[in-house]
UniProtKB/TrEMBL annotation:
This protein's UniProt keywords: Fatty acid biosynthesis, Fatty acid metabolism, Iron, Lipid biosynthesis, Lipid metabolism, Metal-binding, Oxidoreductase, Transit peptide
CDD domains referenced in this protein's UniProt entry, alphabetically: Acyl_ACP_Desat
Entry GO terms, CC: chloroplast stroma
Protein name: Stearoyl-[acyl-carrier-protein] 9-desaturase
Top-level taxon of origin: Eukaryota
Amino acid sequence: MAGLRSPSFYMASTLRTSAKEIDLKKPFTPPREVHVQVTHSMPPQKIEIFKSIEGWAEENILIHLKPVEKCWQPQDFLPDPVSDGFEEQVKELRERAKEIPDEYYVVLVGDMITEEALPTYQTMLNTLDGARDETGASPTTWAMWTRAWTAEENRHGDLLNKYLYLSGRVDMRQIEKTIQYLIGSGMDPRTENNPYLGFIYTSFQERATFVSHGNTARHAKDYGDIKLAQICGTIASDEKRHETAYCKIVEKLFEIDP
């Protein structure tokens, strides 16, 4: 019993001002970039070349988007909160989750955090000269693609976030803080406002997420959680479709501007 703190100690400890409490009173200070940033590196003639393929993109890129009514939604894979069997469904999900090792969840959390940083990726696309959404609701092909791509991608983080919350296997508050730090810090992939560089980056990014989600799908199946395998595999399928679109853009740019 000697190791337990007395009630008086508890009371005294709440009166002390800790370093953490002092830090919480400080105003938010965003991180500052330290490397030299290059901006608007693409010459005007190349911007015109890029703009010249907008008609081609309308016919060949927008087809890789799905109508909202034909898209899956996170709720399709999760316990139904309005059903009488909701609590039992959650219990079954948590029982399956218990059979999966911690190291798997480390990867799944990483995948989810990556997906939840979607605002950063949309911001990056809207830095690209000739492709940015100038108004927030621009009717250009590139702006429509960015908004619809973002809307499709948004389901990925939503689904993984809700699954992990229901699983009871992870510290959600720490994950949520990490996501806030990540989005608040921003990201400079050094694409220099250049759509050539920007779309090469997104092609690799989509390939990487396709591979990662595909791997988590296979491992979930190996661990016996078919529903989780379906979740990860469905997200991987979206990433592959998006990769196809971005690769087509890059191939077209190489074709007209070798």
